[in-house]
Design a protein that fits this description.
The complex is a heterodimer of chains A (116) and B (112). Chain A has 116 residues and is mainly β. Chain A has strands spanning 4-7, 10-13, 19-25, 32-38, 44-51, 57-58, 67-73, 76-81, 90-98, 101-107, 111-115. In chain A, the strands form two sheets. In chain A, strands 2, 4, 5, 6, 9, 10 and 11 form a seven-stranded mixed sheet that branches. Chain A has a four-stranded antiparallel sheet with strand order 1-3-8-7, with no helix packed on it. Chain A starts with a strand and ends with a strand. Chain B has 112 residues and is mainly beta. Helix content of chain B is 0%, strand content 46%. Chain B has strands at residues 3-5, 10-14, 19-21, 24-26, 32-38, 45-49, 60-61, 72-74, 83-92, 98-102, 106-111. In chain B, strands 2, 5, 6, 9, 10 and 11 form a six-stranded mixed sheet that branches. A three-stranded antiparallel sheet of chain B has the order 3-8-7, with no helix packed on it. In chain B, strand 5 (32-38) and strand 6 form a beta hairpin. The radius of gyration of chain B is 14 Å and the shape is globular. Chain B starts with a strand and ends with a strand. The chains are: A mainly beta (116), B mainly beta (112). The interface between A and B is medium-sized, with 22 and 22 residues.
């Protein structure tokens, strides 16, 4: 089946630094990927839509300059949390719809970010 | 506004009991609805979608447009059904790939 991976699975960084999270589709191509944020015991909130070869589309209230998204290839999207602060600590999850089955999204395992 | 509501954060039942996880939605167009499940320490995965009208792992869900509901049901719960269940609504994005709006999730705990 389709697999989406994320790296790293967890990361701890100091306040003020930037952190990059990768999302890869391992056995299929994804022109679109989605980035979610999940707080403890809460639902997934869509942050942005990553588009291969073009700019990402951000949801209302999500800071574009804070969460930089790059979708440089058909199998890789990256989310960079810039100048991270403790309130950015969260679980970040990506997903990708499989080609020809856009109704079904395949989710990555998530990345736990802790900003100290 | 597009919204998915799951009123129960936790549903605890005994093994063999019927299960119904509630989901209500608000959407101005024709909705496409899904149930996603997340087992302990695993990633989120699709359980079923309303269009397919399938029964997956004994679960079914019927879209009721009159009540704007998409409740998930299973007649006899099993311990391995214990997981977090998310109801999700899909809204079209560029006519192709669909964005998902998730409910807050319901934790199903099946007691032995």
């Amino acid at each position: 089946g389709a697999v989406v991976s994320q790296h790293p699975s967890w990361v701890i960084c100091k306040s003020g630094t930037s952190v990059k999270i990768e999302c890869r589709s391992l056995d299929f191509q994804a022109t679109t990927m989605f980035w979610y944020r999940q707080f403890p015991k809460q639902s997934l909130m869509l942050m942005a839509t990553s588009n291969e070869g073009s700019k990402a589309t951000y949801e209302q209230g999500v800071e574009k300059d804070k969460f930089l998204i790059n979708h440089a290839s058909l199998t890789l999207s990256t989310l960079t949390v810039t100048s991270a602060h403790p309130e950015d600590s969260s679980f970040y999850i990506c997903s990708a719809p499989r080609e020809g089955r856009d109704y079904e999204q395949y989710f990555g395992p998530g990345t736990r970010l802790t900003v100290t | 506004a597009q919204r998915v509501t799951q009123p129960e954060k936790l549903l605890s039942v005994f093994k063999g009991a019927p299960v119904e996880l509630k989901c209500n939605y608000s959407y101005s167009g024709s909705p496409e609805l899904f149930w996603y499940v997340q087992y302990s320490r695993q990633r989120l995965q699709l359980l079923l979608r309303h269009i397919s009208r399938e029964s997956i792992k004994g679960f079914t869900a019927d879209l009721n447009k009159g009540e704007t509901s998409f409740h998930l049901k299973k007649p006899f719960a099993q311990e391995e059904d214990s997981a977090m269940y998310y109801c999700a609504l899909s809204r079209n994005y560029g006519g192709a790939t669909n964005k998902l709006i998730f409910g807050t999730g319901t934790l199903l705990a099946v007691q032995p």
